[in-house]
């Protein structure tokens, strides 16, 4: 009982690949911004 044929699975793979390519750099950038904000708040609290 196959739900998808090979062509549909390939299309899904391409779509998920594109989503990963777009989302991973954005996620890394948001982590960097959160760390920078934490550093700024820590420095402000020390001053």
Low-confidence stretches: none
Helix-strand pattern: H
Q: What fraction strand?
A: under 5%
Q: With helices defined by DSSP (H or I, 4 residues minimum), what is the helix count?
A: 1
Structural class: mainly alpha
Radius of gyration: 20 Å
Strand segment tally: 0
Largest sheet: none
The overall pLDDT average reads: 93
Helix content: over 70%
Shape: rod-shaped
Separation of termini?
66 Å
Keywords: Membrane, Transmembrane, Transmembrane helix
Transmembrane segments: 12-31
Top keywords for this entry?
47 residues; mainly alpha; rod-shaped; transmembrane helix; membrane; transmembrane
How would you describe this protein?
The structure is a single chain. The protein is mostly helical and 47 residues long. Helix content is 87%, strand content 0%. The protein has one helix at residues 6-46. The protein starts with 5 loop residues before the first helix and ends with a helix. The chain crosses the membrane at residues 12-31. Keywords: Membrane, Transmembrane, Transmembrane helix.
Blueprint (SSEs and pairs):
Blueprint (H helix, E strand, L loop, with lengths): L5 H41 L1
Can you summarize this structure?
By secondary structure, this protein is mostly helical. It contains one helix and no strands.
């Amino acid at each position: 009982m196959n739900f998808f044929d090979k062509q549909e699975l390939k299309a899904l793979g391409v779509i998920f690949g594109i989503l990963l390519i777009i989302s991973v750099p954005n996620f890394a950038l948001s982590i960097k911004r959160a760390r920078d904000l934490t550093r700024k708040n820590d420095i402000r609290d020390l001053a």
